[in-house]
Amino acid sequence: TKRVFSGIQPTGDLHLGNYIGAMKQFLPLQEQADCFFCIVDLHALTVPRDPEELREKTLELATLYLATGLDPDKITLFIQSQVPGHAEAAWLLQCVARMGELNRMTQFKDKSQGSDSVTAGLFTYPVLQAADILLYQTDVVPVGEDQKQHLELTRDLAERFNRQYGEVFRIPEHQIPKTGARIMGLDNPEKKMSKSAPSEANYITLLEDEKSILKKFKRAVTDSENEIRFDPENKPGVSNLLAIYSEMSGQSVESLVEQYQGKGYGHLKLDTAEAVINRLKPIQERYRELRESGEVEAVLRRGAERAREVSEATLAEMKKAMGLVQF
Ligand code: TYM
C-alpha cells in the first residue's frame, strides 16, 4: 500500500480553500493508502502566536479533520510537536539544504515582505516540511497548488541526501486537485483565499453559519459582464464561484456552465452558497458531537504513538548514513 502524508497549520479558522484543496482529497485516500495526517503546530510557531490560542486551534483542527469524515481507525492523526523526530530530522536536513534554494521560496518572500522581525524559523520552514514528509517514506502528498514549490524542494533535498549519504528516502509525489487547487478570495478573486486575509469577507470558514455564508457569497466580487463561463484568467470571480460550486456539489464545471446559460450572477451566487451550506452542515454537526464526546484526545495519543514508531525508524537510518554514533 502507498503511504500518504499531509499537514495543515493550526492557525486561524480552516476555510473552503483548505477543504477543497486539501482535506477533500484525503477522504478517498483513507480507503486505499496508509495515511498520516498531521497538525503542524511547529510550523505555526514561525510567526508569533498567542499560546492559549494555538492550543485551542490545535484541538479544533484535530476535531475538524475527523468531522470531515476521516476515520481514526483507518488513518493516523497526530500533532507534529508530539513526535520529536520532526524537529530532529529538520536539523539534519538543514545541513543538506542550501541558503540559495530557501531564498527562492515564494511563500517565504510573500510572508517576510515588509516585516522587520522575520524569524529564522520562517526561513527554514520548508525544510521542516520536507522532514515531515520524508520521515514517513511518503509516496503521495495531497495538497493545494500553493504547496507545489515546497514539494519540489522536498524532492530535491531527498535526492541530494540519497546521493550524498546513500539511499535513505523514498521520493514523494504531490497530488494537486484539478479544479479546486487554488480557491480564490471572495472579496478579491485575484488572490488566493487565505486565513490571514485582512477582511473576513475573503473566506468562508468550515464552521461558519448559514446567514454569514449567504451574505458573503451575495457580496462576492465578480465582473461587470453577465456571461457565465469558466475562464479563470479573464473572469476570476465567476470562475472561482463555479469551481467552489462544482467541488461542493459534485457536478462538473461544464454541466454547471450549461445549466446557468442566460441566468444572472445572482442565481449563481445563491446556488453556490446553498451548495456550500449543504456540504458543510453534516461536518458542523459532527464537529459539535466530537467536541462533546472528548474522544479526540485519545485519537491523537494513539496517532502520535504510531507516528513516533514509523518516524524513528527513518531518523535512525538518517543518523547512521550521516555518521552520527548511535548505541
Ligand atoms: P496550510 O495550513 O497553509 O494549508 C493547508 C492545506 O490547504 C491548502 N490550501 C489551499 N488550497 C486551495 N486553495 C486555497 N486558497 C488554499 N489555501 C490553502 C494548502 O495547499 C494545504 O494543502 N506548509 C503547509 C503545511 C505543511 C504540510 C507539511 C503540507 C507542513 N508540513 C507536509 C503537506 C505535507 C501549509 O502551510 O499549509
Question: Spans of 5+ residues with little confidence (pLDDT < 50)?
Answer: none
Number of strands: 5
- How many helices? The count is 13
- Indicate the mean pLDDT: 96
Q: Structural class of the helices, strands and pairings? A: mainly alpha
- Seen as an oligomer or otherwise, the chain set is single chain
* H and E order: EHEHHEHHHHEHEHHHHH
How would the global form be characterised? globular
The fraction of residues assigned to DSSP E strands is 5-15%
Helical proportion?
40-55%
Largest β-sheet summary: 3 strands, parallel
Distinct compounds present: tryptophanyl-5'AMP
N/C terminus separation: 32 Å
Radius of gyration: 21 Å
Strand order in space, largest sheet: 1-2-3
Task: Walk me through the structure.
- By secondary structure, the chain is mainly alpha-helical.
- It is 55% helix and 7% strand.
- The protein contains 13 helices and 5 strands.
- The chain has helices at residues 16-32, 41-44, 51-67, 85-94, 99-103, 106-112, 120-134, 148-165, 210-218, 236-249, 253-259, 265-293, 296-322; strands at residues 3-8, 34-39, 75-79, 140-142, 173-175.
- The chain has a 3-stranded parallel β-sheet. Strands 4-5 form a two-stranded parallel sheet.
- Strand 1 (3-8), helix 1 (16-32) and strand 2 (34-39) form a beta-alpha-beta unit.
- Helix 9 (210-218) runs antiparallel to helix 12.
- It is globular.
- It starts with a strand and ends in a 5-residue tail after the last helix.
- The model has no long low-confidence stretch (mean pLDDT 96).
- Bound molecules: tryptophanyl-5'AMP.
- One of its GO terms (cellular component) is cytosol.
